[in-house]
Design the sequence.
């Protein structure tokens, strides 16, 4: 039997977008996001910023990177002096290399849903002790895995709102 998700409240850069800034709130909001319908938005490039397809590509890149972080933080062999220390990633380079503007919206959406379905599963089954593991990404300050999970869902919601106006 899995323990109940934590009810600890965290203030992160994106936690204010969640229904509740807790792990259980983030899990509920991610479930809502995964079940939402996302019609294909206007695909015209935006001047000086990412297109809607590139934003979805960024969310795919974010899912790939964060899934690895969420798993590694639960494996003692990946910790250094009880910390998870991982590099950040060059978001613009990832989006450019991914060439998302040349991809089909429905295929990208299916990939995003599949990756986030696995992230949701990991979040629901996280080792409760691992929630306290301090994580350092790039040159950021350490934050517990639980706060990273909460912020991930808020970050995802932030970008999905810019594409389609969806909210949790």
Sequence:
């Amino acid at each position: 039997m899995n323990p109940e998700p934590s009810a600890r409240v965290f203030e992160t850069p994106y936690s204010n977008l969640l229904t509740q800034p807790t792990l259980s709130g983030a899990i509920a909001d991610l479930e809502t996001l995964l079940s939402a319908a996302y019609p294909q938005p206007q695909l015209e490039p935006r001047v000086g910023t990412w297109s809607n397809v590139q934003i979805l590509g960024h969310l795919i890149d974010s899912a790939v990177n964060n899934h690895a972080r969420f798993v590694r933080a639960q494996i003692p062999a990946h910790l250094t002096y009880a910390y998870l220390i991982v590099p950040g990633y060059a978001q613009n380079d990832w989006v450019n290399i991914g060439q998302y503007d040349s991809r089909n919206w429905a295929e990208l959406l299916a990939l995003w849903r599949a990756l986030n379905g696995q992230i949701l599963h990991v979040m629901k089954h996280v080792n409760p002790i691992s929630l306290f593991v301090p994580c350092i990404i790039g040159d950021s300050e350490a934050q517990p895995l639980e706060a990273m999970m909460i912020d991930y869902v808020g970050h995802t919601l932030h970008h999905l709102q810019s594409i389609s106006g969806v909210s949790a």
Strands lie at 84-86, 134-137, 143-144. The helical segments are 23-35, 52-72, 91-98, 105-124, 145-164.
